[in-house]
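User: Modeling request: complex.
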Amino acid sequence: MNSSHMLQVENLSKYFGGVKAVNSVSFDLAEGELLGIIGPNGSGKTTVVNCITGFVKPDSGKILYLNQNITRWAPYKIINLGIARTFQMVRPFYQLPAFKNIIIPLYSPRVKRLAGGKYGDRDAVALDLLEEVGFERDSFVSYKVASALPQGYLKRLELAKGIALRPDLLILDELFSGLSLAEVASIVPIIEKLRFQGKTILMIEHRLKELFRIADRVIVLNFGEKIADGLPKEVLDSEEVKKAYLGSEEG
Amino acid sequence: MMKKRKERIDRGIKARSEDIFALSSLREMIYLLIPRAIPVLGLLVVSPFLSAYWQEVFISTAIYALLAISWDLLASCGLVSLGQSLFYGIGSYIAGALNYYLGWSPLFTIPVATIGGGVLCTIFLLPVLRLRGIYFAMVTLVLPLMFLRLVEATRILGGTEGLTGLDSFPTQLTALYVIQLALLAALFGFRRIMGSDYGLIIMGINDNDRSVMNAGINIFWYKTQVLFLASAVGSFAGAFGTHMDMFAGMPGFALDYSIMPVAAAVVGGMGTFAGPMVGSFILVPLSEILRALGALRIVFYGLFLVVFIVALPEGLFHYIQRKYHQFERWVEVEK
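Assistant: Request completed. Predicted assembly structure:
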């Protein structure tokens, strides 16, 4: 066990009824790494993330974060340790203006602690964060009610909510899905900037082309089992991965 | 063919947000002050001039208004309560017992019942706090009925007779002012809370609780705090009502105290605290006026409720607020 490992997942299993959503999956994540998780639909990617962040309790296996066992912890405890995630299906607070959405993570114990007790003007910090993820400052889009925002902005809002928590490990669950090529191209630099700031990133992605360009390493899940783990190029050439994707719409 | 639609435009105030106003003229200050001054002056100045009978109606209205405000606070956190009488009954019995057995004056029993009732009700409801919607509602509905039968069967706290001959307030005017100040404190206090960042969390829990969890916030703890605030306000109403009636007994757990706050919130408009208060100030006096109709009272009362809810589903307060803050005009749109 290497101490530079930020996250270690050991023999993680989760069953829904008789279905093995995740079956004895193990992987680890080094500090500063960008790891991609790919796999056909229903291969258990999101369930793995749900287990790591505590939204789903795994049936067996262990999850270590910075050598601390966080298996089956409540989500808010895990998140306050420094793990933040985005949801595949965006979960904004629809009744609130976009920047007010960011206030809620800014209110978390973690951010309060990192900011040294009392927080100043949360509104200003929230507007800065939104600008960081591409809400144009002078267009008033940050003040719009979330229910009036188009999908592209909702995805950015989801990302901003994650960044607002000042995480060390950021988990992005299909951040690119439902976005146009141009929108993806504008979000990629944001992710690269986060890496430059030293954040460790775990990305679930269906958009392989974009992912392979930025990922250090990729693991592949199929029917809840890990079938490949390596550099993007190695994974792509693996026979088993080809077989898994063949027949599914990913081709 | 030309069709018309209503266009709504916000009135030109420089900046209007939940709690910060940037005002540039006296006119704007008056514009913002009037809606806040009317309830305060209306209550404090008008009420002493009412007849003794209507003062009593007024006090009982204010008690219902407190329960309705407490209901609205729970609802803004996604907790639908059908058991406001739990809060009322617990508060009423704590104050009653302290006065009856220990001889404490209302000056002490009411604060103790407020805090104690808040703590007790929070503990009772803690196990079901993770439930939402109808499940939470069912439990709140059942609990007061359980306490009712508990008192009846075990004959504790006076059993079916209740605790009688309790101390009242020195004068009716004292009672009138105590309840009004409490009502205004709850109204403006809760509005203030909901306008702050803390209130955003509460609204967020109602809107999307998983997203609040995902923001590293312990929603169970926040719901507990809201539950405590709401039960404390309800228990205060109960403690106050008990000293007013000089009686603590099984009627404290009656269904009236559960249903009226919900009706008031629906008629007045949910989520504003002012709405449920307005609703109470319509429904409770109306029920008194309708007493003249004798047996048909409930029929007309029900009819009024139905007509009101169908005609103004958003609630009276939301309607007035919209008219006050926005211009409306008909504009022609092309079909």
